Amino acid sequence: MRKAVTIIIPVLLALLAAAQFTACEKYVLPAISIDPDTLRFTAAADSAQIQLVTNVITSPSTDENVTWISAWPNWFDADSPVTIYVEENASEKERSGIMYFKSEALQRKLVVIQEGKK
Known about the structure:
Largest sheet: 4 strands, antiparallel
CATH architecture: Sandwich
Radius of gyration: 25 Å
Distance between the termini: 94 Å
CATH topology: Immunoglobulin-like
């Protein structure tokens, strides 16, 4: 019995050590990129697509006062086309806003410019 225990314990420790090395995951640096990084629209309500390349969960947002820009879908976790929507600009002045694409650690900006009504 004692001989069996002296053999089993080292074997179990070796298996445990091997399991730790095989269970390690490779860490990938988070990345987000968008193309293009600037969109121009006429005064009419419209949409355009950008290409989002990411390897982390990412969601779009704007500042509170920029309610005329939106994006679909609402979150991403892989490379994806993203549709950017703008509401009609009833003002004669050009307006601009920023849509942020954020993860826990990263942020990228999309500049959106819309002409004024003529």
